[in-house]
Amino acid sequence: MAAMKRGAVFLDRDGIINWRIAGGYVRTPAEFHLLPDIVPFLSGVHQLGLLTIVVTNQQGVAKGLMGLEALEAIHKHMQQEFLRLLGFGVDDIFVCIDPAETNSWRRKPQPGMLIEALHKWHLTPEACWMVGDTAADVLAGHRAGIRTILVGAESVPEADFHVRTLDDALAIIVTHQNASLPPPTPPTIPPS
Ligand SMILES: [Mg+2]
After folding, report:
1. What pTM, to 2 d.p., does this model score?
2. Residue 92 annotated as catalytic
3. If you measure from the C-alpha of residue 87 to the centroid of ligand 1, how many angstroms do you get, rounded to a whole number?
4. 5-14: per-residue pLDDT in tens?
């Protein structure tokens, strides 16, 4: 029996799930506002049987701009919003609070958080996707050996796909997940 392939969509947080605060940090649940596209996106990903895993850099904690408790409160609020709107939340959340200057292996563009998640959830890299809005997201996915979808205005040559919206990203995932399944049995033509 072939081993079951388990896939996931890794999601960046700020700019993909919620509005990002230009030049600043989301520091309280009140500052956390879902982007409208994320709800149908998660619904579609869920229907494909893929896990959803958030991977987010939050160096504001290390900089003393917010406490870990505040970050946990934001993520609890996020899950409650998903539960209310979708009936389910994301499957896991990985956070890196290390400041950029430490060049942490866990901090995107390094792949540490993704590799931890691949192991923890026994994921097949070929069945996984990284979806983000910056070069750090694309590079982290690329280095973890998974396919990457860049959403939005930035330009990153390493991205496997570059789209404008999460709707477009979902369409790519749907197409390629289906393509990885065995071909359907051709219909039998009845004798005339
Ligand atoms: Mg982002």
Report:
1. 0.90
2. no
3. 25
4. 899 999 999 9
